[in-house]
Write a structure and sequence with these properties.
Radius of gyration: 14 Å
Mean pLDDT: 97
CATH topology: Serine Threonine Protein Phosphatase 5, Tetratricopeptide repeat
Helix content: over 70%
Low-confidence stretches: none
Shape: globular
CATH superfamily: Tetratricopeptide repeat domain
Largest sheet: none
Order of helices and strands: HHHHHH
Number of helices: 6
Number of strands: 0
CATH class: Mainly Alpha
Strand content: under 5%
Structural class: mainly alpha
């Protein structure tokens, strides 16, 4: 069974599991299902804004889709959440990507 099918099987039992949804979104990016990945990342962050790892990947995806203003917004939201959580590593990664895009 391929990875996507296996993740979907697990998601059927736990449809709101952010780890599984994030993993599926990353698999979608690999096969260029950008719309599916975006939908998953946005659902995760709408429902669980503290799931910090998804901000970077969503913003990078939006950069790829040539939507820099949306990417900037997600980087900023991610930095705010990382700061609130005291996650300096995630904050630094988001800030570096943000600065690469903005400057």
């Amino acid at each position: 069974m391929d990875r996507i099918a296996k993740i979907k099987e697990f998601l059927a039992a736990n449809p709101t599991d952010n780890f599984l949804r994030h993993a599926l979104a990353l698999e979608y990016i690999k096969i260029e299902n950008d719309a599916g990945a975006r939908e998953l990342f946005e659902a995760i962050l709408t429902e669980s804004p503290g799931y910090i790892g998804s901000y970077y990947h969503l913003a990078k995806l939006l950069e790829k889709l040539e939507q820099p203003q949306l990417a900037i917004g997600w980087y900023e939201k991610g930095m705010a959440e990382a700061k609130k959580a005291g996650d300096n590593h995630a904050y630094s990664e988001l800030q570096a990507a943000y600065e690469d895009l903005v400057y």
